[in-house]
Amino acid sequence: MVEEFRKYIAENNLFNLSDRVLLTVSGGIDSMVMAHLFLAINASTGIAHCNFNLRGPESNEDEAFVKYFASLHKIPFFSESFDTIGFASEKGISIQMAARELRYRWFEEIRLKNNFHCISVAHNLNDNVETFLLNLTRGSGIAGLTGMKPKHKNLIRPLLFASRSSIVEYCNFNKIDFREDRSNAETKYKRNKIRHVIIPQFKEINPSFETTIIETAERLNEINEIISGHISGLRDKVSIVNDNSISFKINTLQGLSPRLTLLFELFRPYGIAKGQLDDLVNLINGKTGSQLITSSHRFIKNRKELVVSKMKQIQKITLRYL
Amino acid sequence: MVEEFRKYIAENNLFNLSDRVLLTVSGGIDSMVMAHLFLAINASTGIAHCNFNLRGPESNEDEAFVKYFASLHKIPFFSESFDTIGFASEKGISIQMAARELRYRWFEEIRLKNNFHCISVAHNLNDNVETFLLNLTRGSGIAGLTGMKPKHKNLIRPLLFASRSSIVEYCNFNKIDFREDRSNAETKYKRNKIRHVIIPQFKEINPSFETTIIETAERLNEINEIISGHISGLRDKVSIVNDNSISFKINTLQGLSPRLTLLFELFRPYGIAKGQLDDLVNLINGKTGSQLITSSHRFIKNRKELVVSKMKQIQKITLRYL
Asked: Per-residue b/e over B115-136, b at no fewer than 16 CB within 10 Å?
């Protein structure tokens, strides 16, 4: 496992051994194994632990456990408490989304203040498969089917190659202590259903189901890269950049095929949502002077051109009151 | 249902009302509803029924049932018996694959001999979702995730818009008679597991799961079209067509990104299989004079070029003995 860990880090250029890596450790099995592996390769680390205050006294025990581990190995320890429920309620988002936003924002703060090169999270291969299926179920388009990345900006996932069972094996073999995750079953209802009910069924059809999904995600990721390159090239070809706007020739837009996907990808940077595609098509084919407003831009049909301009803040505020 | 049927046929240009359509009717609920709908729109049809001899006396009863229906409505009837098990055994393929090959080959014979414009099969929306998931499980790459098409060469699927439940509803309302499909559970084990166990679980997470999958398949289909267009354009740019071969500049190939997917798509018409990608990369980077054989072509590295030529039949036969 240690060798595969080294190899995965090297192959994906996750970090150099001279870099300081901030480990995000909940105390659960994945993050404790991750911490153990970083010790095994003698990397220079810090440990960040979030207390979301969602598990009562157990939340505090988790924090004490991780803090003790850090002190044992003389690793700098950072912890923060979050009023997750309050934040979720204020922002009108789910507890899960709130916890995620809070923690990643704080990790980046710690990273910058303490000169860490990157932040390491303990996502494993099975997490990746579950996320793929969750996104497939919700309907994410190709973007949600490209899989988790080993590296994304300052975030690394050095355990992404490892199956949950190999992590359990390593944990047992090395007698690594960890905290059981008894988080509110509801917040993980969907993921747990996929993990405990749906995936085992798929594995009866194909025992290598998980590896198959990962390979499919990797192919879709490459396809996504090809598409992005193609769309950028197309955008350069069909648009003219003016001082305060970008114009597109109407008849070029009318000739695009496949129409909906190309229109969506072309105009996505200008705030077009999937639900607005039909409106966009109507605008392109409609009368001169017609307009369409997205979350960030204004589209106007001006005779043979579609003119896109960024909406000024005051315009956005005005619209909010309409 | 009849109106949606008409609309789907029109929107997808499946056929004109003056065309003669060969209906493939097993006697099961989907094909009987399909036949009923064709009667409702007064189309000119014929009915083809395959007897695969897999269900003993029931197979013959199915045939008699469909024959009677055809005669009732004065529709030309064609039937054929197949030694499915023998054919499967001879070709070394599964019963399912054998049945499929036998029937499509025969449908096309009947179509041509009797001047039918196209062949209609009764696949419905749920079949489409199940096929998507089956392909996802097996690992088909993007090709298996683009969904069934309403039209493919001379084959049409005019029921693809309809859910199984709407078909059952139409059947019950119109008191349409049909034969229960009690085919060997084993040949449909995987599909049945997806239908009866896995999909219901997904629907607990997202009740619109099936529609979501269909939309994803349609987006992936459009993406596939974009990729194909992109790859063709790329192939024209990076290759030179000679009399008996096509050459590619080695340094252009070395510069491709994302490498594996682009190489696979570029060289797929020349017989490259996914398992040969690493060999291809090694060839591109290897010594001049190195070769690679695919199922249909020979690749030779000739200094700064990769030269691809079609293998002659005699060469293929020789190789078979090596």
From this structure: ebbbbbbbbbbbbbbbbbbbbb
pLDDT for residue A232? 87
Candidates B198, B212, B213; nearest CB to A201:
B198
Considering only CB atoms, which chain B residues are within 8 Å of A223?
A: 142, 223, 227, 261
- Give A311's contacts (C-beta < 8 A, 6+ positions apart): A293, A296, A297, A298, A319
CA torsion angle B253 B258 B261 B265 (round to 10): -50
Helical (H) or strand (E) element with B58? helix B57-72
**Residue A13 scores a pLDDT above 70:** yes
With beta carbons less than 8 A apart as the criterion, state whether B35 and B69 touch: yes
* Per-residue pLDDT reduced to its tens digit, A73-97: 999 999 998 888 888 888 888 887 8
CB atoms under 10 Å from CB of A47, counted, come to 22
Q: Per-residue pLDDT averaged across B278-295, rounded? A: 91
Query: Element (H or E) spanning A224, and its range?
Result: helix A209-238
Global pTM reads: 0.83
Residues of B in contact with A216 (CB under 8 A): 136, 139-141, 145
A199 has a chain B CB within 8 A of its CB: no
Q: Tokens 């099936």 appear where?
A: B210
| pLDDT, tens digit (0-9, with 9 covering 90-100), for B94-118 | 887 888 888 999 999 999 999 999 9
Q: What percent of chain B has pLDDT over 70?
A: 95
Chain segment A133-145, per-residue pLDDT in tens: 999 998 877 888 9
Q: How far is A6 from A11, CA to CA, in rounded Å? A: 9
Confidence check: pLDDT of A314 > 60: no
Rg of chain B over all Cα atoms, to the nearest angstrom:
24
Interatomic CA distance for residues B257 and B41, integer angstroms: 52
Q: Is B256 on the interface with A (CB under 8 A)?
A: no
> What is the rounded radius of gyration, in angstroms, for the C-alpha atoms of chain A?
24
Residue B264 contacts residue B272 (beta carbons within 8 Å):
yes
- CB B137 to CB A206 under 8 A? yes
Inter-chain CB proximity A136 and B227 less than 8 Å: no
Whether residue B23 contacts residue B47, with contact meaning beta carbons closer than 8 Å, is answered with yes
